[in-house]
Design brief:
The complex is a heterodimer.
Chain A: E1 2-9, E2 20-26, H1 29-32, H2 38-47, H3 65-79, E3 87-91, E4 97-103, H4 107-126, H5 132-146, H6 150-161, E5 166-168, E6 174-177, E7 184-187, H7 196-203, H8 205-214, E8 222-225, H9 228-238, E9 242-246, E10 256-259, H10 262-275, E11 279-283, E12 288-295, E13 298-306, E14 309-311, H11 318-326, E15 331-332, E16 339-340, H12 346-354, E17 368-370, E18 382-385, H13 392-405, E19 409-416, H14 423-426, E20 429-435, H15 440-443, H16 453-461, E21 472-476, H17 481-494, E22 499-503, E23 506-509, E24 512-516, H18 522-530, E25 536-540, H19 543-549, E26 556-561, H20 578-590, E27 592-601, H21 605-609, E28 617-622, H22 628-635, E29 639-644, E30 647-652, E31 655-660, H23 673-688, H24 693-702, E32 715-719, E33 722-727, H25 732-743, E34 750-754, H26 762-773, E35 778-783, H27 794-803, E36 811-816, H28 818-828, E37 834-838, H29 842-855
Parallel strand pairs in A: 15-16, 21-25, 21-26, 22-25, 26-27, 27-28, 28-29, 33-37, 34-35, 34-37, 35-36
Antiparallel strand pairs in A: 1-2, 2-4, 3-4, 5-6, 6-7, 8-11, 9-10, 9-11, 12-13, 12-19, 13-18, 14-17, 19-20, 22-23, 23-24, 29-30, 30-31, 32-33
Chain B: E1 2-9, E2 20-26, H1 41-48, H2 64-71, H3 75-89, E3 97-101, E4 107-113, H4 117-136, H5 142-156, H6 160-171, E5 176-178, E6 184-187, E7 194-197, E8 200-201, H7 206-213, H8 215-224, E9 232-235, H9 238-248, E10 252-256, E11 266-269, H10 272-285, E12 289-293, E13 298-305, E14 308-321, H11 328-335, E15 342-343, E16 350-351, H12 359-367, E17 381-393, H13 400-413, E18 417-424, E19 437-443, H14 448-451, H15 461-469, E20 480-484, H16 489-502, E21 507-511, E22 514-517, E23 520-524, H17 530-538, E24 544-548, H18 551-557, E25 564-569, H19 586-598, E26 600-609, H20 613-617, E27 625-630, H21 636-643, E28 647-652, E29 655-660, E30 663-669, H22 684-697, H23 702-711
Parallel strand pairs in B: 15-16, 20-24, 20-25, 21-24, 25-26, 26-27, 27-28
Antiparallel strand pairs in B: 1-2, 2-4, 3-4, 5-6, 6-7, 7-8, 9-12, 10-11, 10-12, 13-14, 13-18, 14-17, 18-19, 21-22, 22-23, 28-29, 29-30
Helix pairs in contact in B: 1-4, 3-4, 4-5, 6-15, 9-10, 16-22, 16-23
Chain lengths: 856, 715
Amino acid sequence: MEVSRIRALRGPNLWSRHTAIEAIVTCNDAECSIGDNPDFEARLRARFPEIGFLQPAGHQGGISVAHILEVAALNLQKQAGCTVTFSCTVQTVEAGTYQVVVEYGEEAVGRLAFEIAQTLCRSAIDDTSFDLDSALTRLRELDEDERLGPSTGSIVYAALARGIPYRRLTSGSMVQFGWGSQQRRIQAAETDDTSAIAQSIAQDKELTKKLLDAAGVPIPFGRPVLDEDDAWVAAAEIGFPVVVKPQDGNQGKGVTVNIVGRDQLQIAYAAASAISSSIMVERYLPGHDYRLLVVGGKVVAAARRDPPQVIGDGTHSVRELVEIVNSDPRRSEGHATALTKIRLDEIALARLSIQGFTVDSIPPKGSRVILRNNANLSTGGSATDVTDDVHPEVAARAVAAAQMIGLDICGVDVVCDSVLKPLEEQGGGVIEVNAAPGLRMHLQPSYGKARAVGEAIISTMFKAGDDARIPVVAVSGTNGKTTTVRLISHLLRQNGKRVGMTNSDGVYIENQRIDTGDCSGPKSARNVLLHPDVDAAVFETARGGVLREGLAFDRCDVAVVTNIGIGDHLGLSYIHTVDDLAVVKRVVVQNVAPTGTAVLNAADPMVVKMAASCPGSVTFFASDCHHPVMATHRTKGLRVVYLDGKEVVAAEGVIEQRIALKDIPLTRNGTIGFQIENAMAAIAAAWALGVDWKVIRAGVATFVNDAATAPGRFNVYDYKGATLIADYGHNPDAIIALVNAIDNMSAKRRFVVISGAGDRRDEDISQQTEILGNAFDEVILYQDQCQRGRADGEVLALLQQGLTKATRAKKVEEIRGEFAATDLALSRLKTGDLCLILIDQVDEALAHISKRIAEA
Amino acid sequence: MKFLKVMPLHGPNIWTYRPVLEAWVDIGELEDSPSNTIPGFYERLTSWLPSLEEHRCGVGEKGGFLLRLREGTWPGHILEHVTIELQNLAGMQTGFGKARETSTRGVYKVVVRSRHAKVSRECMDAARDLVMAAIEDKPFDVPATITRLRDIADSYCLGPSTACIVDAATERKIPSVRLNEGNLVQLGYGASQHRIWTAETDQTSAIAESISSDKNLTKTLLQACGVPVPEGRLVESPQDAWEAAEEIGVPVVVKPVDGNHGRGVTTELMTRAEVESAYQLALDEGSGVIVERFVRGNEHRLLVVGGKVVAAARGESASVTGDGRSTVAELIDQQINTDPRRGTTDADPLNLILADEDSAVKFEIMRQGFQPDSIPPKGKQVLIQRNGNVAFDVTDQVHPSIAAAAALAARIVGLDIAGVDMVVEDVSRPFVEQRGAIVEVNAGPGLLMHLKPADGKARPVGQAIIDSLFPANKSGRIPIVGITGTLGKSSVARLVSRLLHLSGKYVGLTCKDGLYLDQRQVEKGDRASCGSAHKVLLNRSVDAAVLVSSAQSILSEGMAYDRCQVGIVTNIIGAEGLDNFYIHEPDQVYNVLRTQVDIVLPDGVAVLNAQDPLVLKMAELCDGSVTLFSQDPEISAVTEHRKQGGRAVFVRYGSVVMAAGKDETTLVELASIPLLKGGAAIHQIDNVLAAVGAAWALGLSQELIRTGIETFKAE
């Protein structure tokens, strides 16, 4: 068993929409059918009884180690409490090599589960020990560390339910909702609208009280004190009972309540001094602690919070009473359950001593023994939902408090006998206002109904129907992607959108290139979706990224597949056939939104097949409107884009829009066939996004395809009366399209300058020259800088091999270096000649050509 | 000299529009000893406080007060001037003061302008001691006193960044209210307010602040959006460090992940050997090591406010050249600290460099193989501080692409006000071509470097912040109706409040019946005070305020607000209850209540009782327009006022009439006003007229005013 590569697929991918670990597992012969070994299975089950079935009921045949790893990794996660369901194992073309795919919720947990699955497998093979409990504990703890906390989680799930995409910005609780210019951020129960100043005010209890008082919210009066003696004086001024607390504390640390005598005050003052140097004395409000959660000007949840406490029965000691309470199965050590165990720590002992008890005292029957000042769930307190009981006047005070402090989300701590009556009637008051309040007590109250507080927060951030998305177009295919992406972006820009675009040249925001190089992968797309100035995104979606990581988005509005043809880059990453390739390119179509559109090339049978996997609608394009696929689609009243003579026609039922080819400069008056296809695809995409036809017409008319706007995409130059064309095309389909376009152009002699990129299959490299040799008179071969793992001269040999079958080429030369090859060709050119330069280092090569043209 | 009473007046008062400290001083027997009769007094006082020379006093020219001293003046007056001077010397600039005799012999009211009550109180106490020492020819440590007062002023007065924002607000006539002893300030009133806390506003997002304080996250976000940052990564080993350097491209910086003050940081490394040894150095100082692109250039601070770069400052390194004799510390004092722009106070644009106290400086020196007390060879240049003095204004040179990058960085982090730190060689050239980088985005940036640059123009950054919070059409104000007079204030207030409530406003009301918010009685008892009015103006829900001030509250506290939309004076009847304030005559009461009319906004309205001659006289004090009310429409004050096109509210043929110039509209019959109880409460007629005048001034419709009055019942 050898695991040669592990990838995390972080978005919709080849296998499913789930995030998943993908591993390449190579098995020896015995391992390929290890499931047939009953001893192994027994050992495996002994070590991990919950591993479940190794294959579906009724199926026979070899179960490999790869299958075992799959099932083990999935079920280990399930046993650790993760909600995962998807896994699969696929045999590759190489015997004994499998791709194993296992869903994860948290990437780190998925990776660890896969690692533990290997350990488990080995121990079952070697009959060594395996500690299941510690493995599950590790997984569980890692999952708890990694996954969103309960407050953040509740907001994120509410967003997902609304179809709002999210992305974590940190390993903590900072999350981005939505994309581009529509994005918002949260950090636990704090939004990007939460004012920093308001938070500072909420931290300052004195100022908070002053402001609440101004807002007409009842508060316990009091003042800061200088020392213990002053505290005593203050207590006398205010009137007993009083509370002593640190001025800037949190979570109830150092707070002592219900003080009536000097002795208690002394202990309380010391406790508060341990937390802070500034101490407050204020009136003690008798009653229960309530927490009212105010979100967007409304009380959305309320809970009564009881401190950890026991009730004396006259026979058990405090210690025993605590043990009895802690034996409740709902009480655990962590956050996982609705209650947490009561701790008998120093704080509890101090609290006991204030009440005149030790842990060994036996409290009288019916007496209440409080073990902590605060009612936090995490220290053993309990929460009872009282949302439906809150009197409108009480709610109004809580809302006024939040409004006065300036918090959009606010936990208002109220002390009163009952929230059923106005605070003013019962001498209750607001004692504290909390920014970024914990939501757990409302999500999982110890008693009573859970409240949908995450939904409330999402509702204040996003209007009904707003899913915070921006239009996303994904363009896939073998050839024409980059030009199509550029043209779609151009059309959207004409529509007033700030467009973010990725393609194989870079990342562009509003026409400004912010990153260079091949940016057709998910990382660049994710960056665009993060950018605050992007209203619409158009992504070139290359296969590499889809295989490596999956898509950068959960769904798109438009997926365009230009063509599959006879393929490109075959042989890499277990993609050997055009069918395999089509499966990869299909991923964008599979992830079109139900309300979205797939724009598919009807002339390419591989692309046509993808229509069946599209959850949304389909627009077909092809030059020939009589193509059976086109004709059928059109007959159904569905959208098609085709060529009618010298016009591109977009038709839906009887409604038609026509754009003359002469008004689409990209097509050079209709002479460049592949650009017509690109234009049709882009027009269909803009149509799918609801761009006005006026805008589309104006857009195609103003789209300039030169070296500046579309470097390496059929850039045409005039050089001393000869026509020079620079293009990046590097696969047989692209070359055929180029040859077809150039055939339509008149020329005395035809030259071509070519190299081959090393990462293509041998047959693809030689096929290029085979095609070119039949269309050009003179061929100049040069060695590409980008050898991509090939030996020196290997590519040149393959290029030469293709030329052996050439019918037209009369002269073939080999030269080293792209610039030298270009210079050689230019030196031969005369008026009326035509030269196609297949450039490799796009920016450098174009700069070189421009320089030569300027010199001419 | 004894203080009988010292009271801060928080707002406009009988003396001036601004807050003052008022002291009642009994000088006792000194009444018989004017300044010219005390031997040596003049000399002592002027030698202790030579800057008293500047005080013009009533004379109106420099040396005016000294002239008075020589001619003979009394300790109350001297106390006033000495307090003002001590305030100035403490750094709290003031000019206004007054000293007036009262009706009691030897008792004076001494008033000084006060920017902070506690500071003024300290200055006044010190001034009394100083004057007494000068009179009694006792020693007095003037410098120590001034240092102490300066420390007090520094601790209570607003910091320079906050002060510049508040000043800009004042310039725009936006009122400000300090909310705590720190720099938290409310600008504007009620629902129209914004809050600032140094260079943070209530629009500043807490999450954005969290992001900006997490340098790594900031860098990741900026980089994702294409903003150049010093790319880099954590490295595991010396070998990995070199691999990272190769990925990034040399030169690189190697530094500890969590170090500070430049400890363990080595810059501009080119070779494998350099990188590997720097790795070890960094590892010793932190828990991990980062290799980053070295960005050549100077550090710049760009201040982004509301999406735009409003100021930019360049940092420069400071270094010294050895003379073969002096230590590094001495060289710093000779070559750097002698710069007159350097000093120790907030007012100095550059700090003194103290090699022994500044650990970053010390470290920089040590890195070059020196100690503060070692003597560098002659001609040897020693770098003292990198980018230490970011105080050279370059605002006008910033290239648009650099400004755009800074603004984008602030937007990505999500800050409305951000200090963007950027390293570039030349801020006037495009960002990308010089491979500059943004190194940090700061929330709540200091503004001092833009206000007091060491070199170049000061920038109105406070104004930019105010303009971003308050667009040109926002004044930060809510309609305030201020009411004073002897009788009827609270009835008028309740009626006006009711009318405003009907118009849909959340009204805050203070009067002798209590404090009301949106018609709910929140506090009971007499609330016709400055403190209660202050509360209402703090309230972010309050759309309109109706605030009653009694003569007592104006005298003892001042007004809670600087200006009002409508000022109503009902009447002046006697001077009852004001004896304690040395006020005995209605004429003196006029001087108190006129404050209400003095502070009416230029576009506001004074509503005055035309049948009360003293009240009528206030009409001429009003910056805005005047609406008169009178039960008798034919008195000359009303007819004259109407001839000028003015507004009046009066009773004609048993109905309330609103008149503007010649036009008259009958609003409502007296008989259908429940408040008048069918004629049993005839004293309320004036109150109704005043309320109608105010409602009219507030732009309420006649229908609403009529309905409001017809349905308003006294409790």
